[in-house]
């Protein structure tokens, strides 16, 4: 199957801020006519920035899981819970829905983002033509789930609100929430720093 012409071959360049497709006029410092942002055929230092943000996010994810994320007080019983022990605590307290939300948002989503972004970086840097369409879909998946990454922080706020309904006598957020919030922000910045056009830069074509 013949390859479709690429934007670079057609003299087109996309603004990475507003998405406007512009003519590549070969100027030294071309700017987007819509938002005046600098136009780049590829985001400068995309892989280096993405690796730096991803590694920083992973380092912060360790204390986010080791340090307690919330303190619950119920009938005189005080518990400082990490993310995982908090999931167990919620399940045992009769809130399996909240437990699944916390587990998905705090463990499954971050680990998936770490794995997917690392795979995209390694495959793009090696210039492999392997499964380009699937990798592009994975990138869009990471962008989509990024909007839901703060669910765990929202759950802690929800638990605090539940105090008035008598489920817990007291709920207090602990330092683990801060590290987790920073992890979420850095992984979102990492996905935004990665240039998905790098996936298609290899000249070889899939079978």
UniProtKB/TrEMBL annotation:
Intracellular or extracellular location(s): Cell inner membrane
Membrane-crossing residue ranges in chain numbering: 51-70, 98-123, 144-167, 173-190
Domain of life: Bacteria
Main location (coarse class): membrane
InterPro entries, A to Z: PqiA-like, PqiA-PqiB_transport
Keyword ATP-binding: no
Keywords for this protein: Cell inner membrane, Cell membrane, Membrane, Transmembrane, Transmembrane helix
Alphabetized Pfam families for the sequence: PqiA (PF04403)
Keyword Transmembrane helix: yes
Protein name in UniProt: Paraquat-inducible protein A
Origin organism lineage: Bacteria, Pseudomonadati, Pseudomonadota, Gammaproteobacteria, Lysobacterales
